[in-house]
Amino acid sequence: MKHNFGAGPCILPQEVFKEASQAIIEFNDTGLSILEISHRSKAFEAVIEETEALVRELLSVPAGYSILFLQGGASQQFAVVPMNLLPQTGKAAYLDSGTWASKAYKEAQKFGIVQVVASSKEANYTYVPKNFEIPADAAYFHYTSNNTIYGTELFETPKSPIPIVCDMSSDILSREITVSDYGLIYAGAQKNMGPAGVTLVIVKDDLLGKTGRDIPAIFDYRKHIEAKSLYNTPPVYAIYVSLLNLRWLKAKGGIVEIERENIIKARTLYDEIERNPLFKGTAAVEDRSRMNVTFVMENPELEKAFLTLAEERGFVGLKGHRSVGGFRASIYNALTITSINALVDAMQEFAEKNA
Amino acid sequence: MKHNFGAGPCILPQEVFKEASQAIIEFNDTGLSILEISHRSKAFEAVIEETEALVRELLSVPAGYSILFLQGGASQQFAVVPMNLLPQTGKAAYLDSGTWASKAYKEAQKFGIVQVVASSKEANYTYVPKNFEIPADAAYFHYTSNNTIYGTELFETPKSPIPIVCDMSSDILSREITVSDYGLIYAGAQKNMGPAGVTLVIVKDDLLGKTGRDIPAIFDYRKHIEAKSLYNTPPVYAIYVSLLNLRWLKAKGGIVEIERENIIKARTLYDEIERNPLFKGTAAVEDRSRMNVTFVMENPELEKAFLTLAEERGFVGLKGHRSVGGFRASIYNALTITSINALVDAMQEFAEKNA
Ligand SMILES: Cc1ncc(COP(=O)(O)O)c(C=O)c1O
Ligand SMILES: Cc1ncc(COP(=O)(O)O)c(C=O)c1O
Ligand SMILES: [Mg+2]
Ligand SMILES: [Mg+2]
Ligand SMILES: [Mg+2]
Ligand SMILES: [Mg+2]
Questions:
Q1: B52 located within any domain
Q2: What pLDDT is recorded for position A66?
Q3: pLDDT at residue B12 above 90?
Q4: Do residues B325 and B178 share a domain?
Q5: Ligand 2 contact via B188 beta carbon (within 6 Å)
Q6: Fewest Cβ atoms closer than 10 Å to its Cβ: which of A28, A79, A198, B282?
Q7: How far apart are CA A246 and CA A195, in angstroms?
Q8: Do residues A266 and A236 both lie within one domain?
Q9: Does B296 lie in the same domain as B153?
Q10: Which long-range contacts (CB under 8 A, 24 or more apart) does A55-62 make?
Q11: Residue B1: inside a domain
């Protein structure tokens, strides 16, 4: 048995895989594979409508916000957000809390003035900057709620005099949020929403159409809103698998229940990292992510041996990102407490042998 | 049994569905679903390398051309092509042969001057314009090789004094082409290459980097070339299913064999349309597409009854696009001659009953 701690694309529930596999052979009772149905068919319209409705329900998305399923990944949103929200002579404010946050503001610089309100770069992004000031004259404030690479997470939405744009790629659907705190939320699906190939955007309608830019149709959120994510051929299968995953989340009790489990999973692992004399966390304690747990060894020379043990035990994706080193356990929604316990056991055994 | 004549996403071989379904449960011997593996894993690197190699082999792509697997569909290329190839003060030339061709040049107009060299719009795009002149001072000449909606196809690459950019979304991999005739080829996968969610781009490297534009990284072909289509998370599964489909195509004899079959399939259906007193084609005979066969009834009042019969027989996707009316039989690579014969039989029976 594998324990998939990969950072994304990542583990999804086994039940989802089963149904996803079946739909490739025959989708519902269409007599067709999900891969060969028209995106304009009634069968697919029902899929996209239910997917949207489930996102709306699970995240309590209020009226006045549209929900879109787009292509290009979160990286594409780094450019598409300023296209849609940054006036040609305007300014945007960004928080620099990690690699993705930094890429986001660098792309925005191609569209206008960017003010970086704070950065933890000089500390290798081990913490999330706090007590920064958001300029009231910027068009929007952008931050990354979970820094996938560095294992830090911002649980409290900053107070902001301007609309907030948030990259929630790696913690969306893992905990409760208040959508009305945001002007725009985006997330590559390939962590907690579904497989790679679709990107979720939740946008407040009345922010759009104010930049004075002649936006290419495919990058204009308004075109996708009008067309209900069917402006052009959508990533049919990635949306369908997301639907299966959202159904799974709803059936198990929704965000309230998954957040409860995620808290227990993260606490179990962080407790062991603290307790275990061989390991230590890399992120500031108050900013520790519930999704990506980054840790190293007090004695780096032992890291290779632990990775070998991890592989023997069927742990996948535990190697840390090269920017941090050591280990990263990504413990997304579908990762079970069983896998967490297996990792804790391995850490304890390893500590005994190497005491 | 269904006969899937849908225009795209469309039929793929049954063998492909079978293997594609299995990989959702377990991919090769990884112990993981293809949906949960990292795009940076060795297992997926092997997938993308083989997919690229097969495109290169099947289409005889010469050295000096890169092959990319991107997101956003062909519609996204309508904007990304001029971003990469149209200098800020430059001009591009476009042929207007259908709905998609027209959308392509309208997006290019957002990036510079567009000269439409010829248009068949006034004739509802029933033919492909010929004998137009391509201006030597434009950066590139863009055309659509197969007009999916109107059922016309350009089999001969125009002679051009400037690089040619071609939207081959609906006829790529259906017949032999000479890649060196082109500067750039793009195609949404969801006809002959694979499922929706991935877009193929074949680009001549030395055309890039000449616009003076500060292109967002995600839209810069050079970034994707450098990263071998792994600049950001790619649409893993759509690429994998494309690989399965390309393997199928190679195993059955490659482009030479599929082109031979496609000629027979198209001829069989067009012959019946001509012969049958109830039906007539809508496209100019010399420009008839081998991929999308558009036809109507001499007596439009009978069309509904024929559609009903078609549905009873398990024909899917036969209704014509609203811009043309009547019927459109999309007869892509994976559609068998058996399905063509079933359609011809139905047309003959219908004619006998309604003589
Ligand atoms: C927080 C965050 N933002 C953006 C990205 C980039 O996403 P994509 O690969 O979909 O472009 C990632 C990828 O892991 C991420 O974790
Ligand atoms: C020739 C052609 N170009 C472009 C498109 C648009 O493709 P997409 O939906 O992938 O953007 C289509 C869609 O059918 C097409 O047939
Ligand atoms: Mg990061
Ligand atoms: Mg410790
Ligand atoms: Mg057309
Ligand atoms: Mg006839």
A1: yes
A2: 98
A3: yes
A4: no
A5: yes
A6: A28
A7: 12
A8: no
A9: no
A10: A55/A200, A55/A202, A55/A246, A57/A250, A58/A173, A58/A246, A58/A249, A58/A250, A58/A254, A58/A255, A59/A172, A59/A173, A59/A177, A59/A179, A59/A202, A59/A255, A60/A178, A60/A179, A61/A179, A61/A202, A62/A179, A62/A180
A11: no
Same domain (yes/no): B246, B257: no
Let me know whether A199 and A281 are in one domain.
no
What value does the mean pLDDT of chain B take? 98
Q: Ligand 1 centroid vs A115 CA: distance in angstroms? A: 22
Domains in chain A, number: 2
pLDDT, residue B346, reads: 98
Q: Same domain for A247 and A259?
A: no
Structure tokens at A31: 């007599």
State the average pLDDT over residues B214-238: 98
pLDDT tier, A355 (very low <50, low <70, confident <90, very high otherwise): confident
Give me the long-range contacts of B207-214 (CB less than 8 A, separation at least 24).
B207/B85, B207/B140, B207/B163, B207/B183, B208/B84, B208/B85, B210/B85, B210/B87, B211/B83, B211/B84, B211/B85, B211/B86, B211/B87, B211/B88, B211/B90, B212/B87, B212/B88, B213/B83, B213/B87, B213/B88, B214/A110
ipTM, two decimals: 0.98
pLDDT digits (tens, 9 = 90+) for A171-211: 999 999 999 999 999 999 999 999 999 999 999 999 999 99
Cα angle, residue A94 at apex, residues A90 and A100 outer, rounded to 5°? 125
Segments forming the whole domain that contains residue A207 = 14-251
Chain B residues near residue A232 by CB distance under 8 angstroms: 73-76
Question: Do B268 and B230 sit in the same domain of this protein?
Answer: no
A146 and A226, same domain (yes or no): yes
Q: What percent of chain A has pLDDT over 90?
A: 99
Q: Is B299 annotated as a binding residue?
A: no
**CATH code of the domain covering residue A306:** 3.90.1150.10
Q: Residue B134 has which token pair? A: 């391509």
Q: Which of B251, B266, B287 is the last residue of a domain?
A: B251
Q: Report if residue B115 sits inside a domain.
A: yes
Of B75, B196, B216, the CB nearest to A79: B216
- Could you say which of B202, B232, B251 is where a domain stops? B251
Cβ of residue B292 lying under 6 Å from some atom of ligand 2: no
What tens digit of pLDDT does each residue of A211-252 get?
A: 999 999 999 999 999 999 999 999 999 999 999 999 999 999
The pLDDT value recorded for residue A184 is 99
